[in-house]
């Protein structure tokens, strides 16, 4: 499943409406205050690109809402994070500097960034001390 994360109800509602207008049936999920929209991975490439563009626009709206809320009330913090699913199925949040995460998301799609995160989690949970070259040789032999 493709997972889109939101921090405010308004952008989430706009995203769900957009998806329904596009003929999709998104699943909304509230994971301990983290708002998510789930879609099947089997999407037409053109539609998937339009969805990503709309999601990016709504992430900008979410940022604007956050800044407005910060202006209205001194929240005293500015943070971002990513959800990491561990081998046992447990979800944890990795806190990331919002500026760094913003820069990453300017060049990577959420799916591409997720591939990197999954590879790091896999390497931590199942360490393999062989060099990358040795791994490739071993894979070719198999």
Architecture overview:
This protein is an alpha+beta fold. The strands form two sheets. Strands 1-3-2 form a three-stranded antiparallel sheet. A two-stranded antiparallel ribbon has the order 4-5. A hairpin with a 2-residue loop joins strand 2 and strand 3. It is globular and about 50 Å long. The model has no long low-confidence stretch (mean pLDDT 85).
Main attributes?
single chain; 142 residues; alpha+beta; two-stranded antiparallel sheet
Mean pLDDT: 85
Q: How would you characterize the largest beta sheet?
A: 3 strands, antiparallel
Shape: globular
Distance from first to last alpha carbon: 31 Å
Q: Which range does the strand content fall in?
A: 15-25%
Radius of gyration, rounded?
18 Å
Order of strands, main sheet, comes to 1-3-2
Low-confidence spans: none
Helix count?
5
Number of strands: 5
Residues in helix, %: 40-55%
Structural class: alpha+beta
* SSE pattern: EHEEHEEHHH
In short:
The chain has 142 residues and is of the alpha+beta class.
Any chance you could write out the topology, listing elements then pairs?
Blueprint (H helix, E strand, L loop, with lengths): L1 E5 L2 H13 L5 E5 L2 E6 L5 H28 L7 E6 L5 E6 L1 H10 L2 H16 L6 H10 L1
Antiparallel strand pairs: 1-3, 2-3, 4-5
Helix pairs in contact: 1-2
């Amino acid at each position: 499943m493709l997972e889109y994360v939101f921090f405010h109800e308004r952008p989430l509602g706009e995203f769900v409406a957009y998806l329904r207008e596009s003929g999709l049936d998104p699943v909304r999920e509230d994971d301990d205050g983290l708002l998510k929209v789930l879609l099947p991975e089997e999407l037409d490439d053109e539609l998937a690109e339009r969805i990503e563009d709309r999601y990016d626009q709504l992430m900008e709206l979410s940022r604007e809402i956050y800044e407005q809320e910060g202006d209205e009330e001194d929240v005293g913090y500015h943070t971002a994070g990513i959800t990491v699913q561990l081998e046992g199925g447990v979800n944890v949040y990795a806190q990331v500097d919002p500026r760094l995460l913003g820069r990453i998301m300017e060049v990577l799609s959420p799916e591409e960034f997720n591939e990197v995160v999954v590879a790091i989690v896999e390497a931590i949970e199942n360490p393999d001390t062989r060099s990358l070259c040795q791994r490739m040789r071993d894979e070719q032999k198999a």
